[in-house]
Amino acid sequence: MFRYIIAICAYQVGFLLAAKMTNPRVCVIGAGIAGLTTARYLKEDGINFTVLEATRYVGGTWRYDPRVDVDENNVTMYTSMYKHLQTNLPKPTMELPGFPLPDDAPSYPGWEDYYKYLQSYAKHFDLEKNIKFLHNVISIKRDENVWRVKHKQVVTKEEFEEEYDYVVIGTGHHSKTHMPNITGEETFKGTIIHSHSYRVPDPYKCRRVLIIGAGPSGMDISLDVATVSTTVFHSHHSTAEDLTPYPENYVKKPDVKALSESGVVFVDGTFEEIDDVIYCTGYEYYYPFLDESSGLSISHHSVIPLYRYLVNIHQPTMVLLGLVVRACVVIALDAQARYTAALINGNFNLPSHDEMMAEWQRRYDVVKSQGKPLSHIHFLEAKEDEYYADLTKESGIARVPPVMFKIRINDIKSKLENLLVYRRYTYKVLDSENFTTTLDTVQNERKNESCVP
């Protein structure tokens, strides 16, 4: 189905840049983890680069802000952070190489600890001097063998356009919400939000709340809301064998069939009265500043075709970081940033257009043969460690230790055994292959609060 994408002639010019370029000009979009790690490695290689960041902060989505729509400059709130969030992966998989988290940071740091860590990272590697804060990217176009990047200073409204040889997009994919289309939604008299706008459980005290979705945010927010609500109805179709002893006011339900003025009908025919709905239904890939000159096909759930999950095959001087799913995301981002810096520095050459398309086509064929949606083209899952090995083999970057993948697999098992307890495990890396865990026996999880209006 997607073999037509090859269209070699229209995009072949990008391969003229395969050889090492003298003093390449690089534009990095976003100052979250992807942008900061890329900036670090570009700086270490002495490469000329600029980071464009729409807000006045580093750290991307890791900064908590009680506002949910736009900030003081009418810029979209990109952060999805909520007050009680802790990482859902343990400390070793959240550390960036050469810059460990503080010794006293919890095994699963909260957002505040981790945000301060990213701020310290930017200062330690002296990255802020290369960041243009409050510069929102308007458009990125390929024209006459360069990238023309237009951006606006969000306070003064002054617009700029500059030329770059490489563009690194590090804006992630957790800002454009995916909203389900549920019958009767328009008749519902209660509140409806997406998890992107969830901050604190307080508004749900003594209320009956429907939460839809069983991804990391759905599981986490359902337990957060359960500490104050009368009842949490958690609707999802996950088949994972979850042994968690959920609180008494947590009720698992199947998929939603329809909403009414005051309640919800599930596909099994049961009905429950509810006051509020929280959609934990994920996000869409959203790059409004890219047009057809990028050579990419972008839909709500996929960005194609990408070599090694990150290089734009049709325009290989554009790289998109952080589009891998079901992986140690911080570890993956750092590896991708190192690979990108090595590519720009000319440490290795990419394969031909045909060879890169063949690699992508093999992944696509596997996804389709398994009857999975195209969104799975971004999933690493069991292939995560193999992916890191491939990046190293091709580019020469330091190998991500296999122990990181092993820790993630163990963490998944711990979640299924008891979602209320898994964050009490402390992981210690012994060497590149092995780790140990210890369980904190102190009971420190939040209890259900008295539901008295």
Describe the structure.
The chain is an alpha/beta fold and 453 residues long. It folds into 2 domains: 3-176 and 283-400, FAD/NAD(P)-binding domain (3-Layer(bba) Sandwich), CATH 3.50.50.60; 178-279, FAD/NAD(P)-binding domain. Helix content is 22%, strand content 22%. It has a 5-stranded parallel sheet with strand order 3-2-1-7-22, covered by helices on one side. A 5-stranded parallel sheet has the order 9-16-10-11-12, covered by helices on one side. The radius of gyration is 23 Å and the shape is globular. The model is unreliable at 1-19 (pLDDT under 50).
Quick rundown:
It is built from 8 helices and 24 strands. The chain has 453 residues and is α/β, with parallel strands linked by helices.
Topology:
Elements: H1 8-11, E1 25-29, H2 33-44, E2 48-53, H3 111-124, E3 131-133, E4 135-143, E5 146-153, E6 159-164, E7 166-169, E8 176-177, E9 191-194, E10 208-212, H4 216-226, E11 231-235, E12 250-253, E13 256-259, E14 263-266, E15 271-273, E16 276-279, E17 283-284, E18 297-298, E19 303-304, E20 306-307, E21 311-312, E22 318-320, H5 329-344, H6 353-369, H7 384-395, H8 403-417, E23 425-429, E24 435-439
Parallel strand pairs: 1-2, 1-7, 2-3, 7-22, 9-16, 10-11, 10-16, 11-12
Antiparallel strand pairs: 4-5, 5-6, 8-17, 13-14, 14-15, 18-19, 20-21, 23-24
Helix pairs in contact: 2-5, 5-7
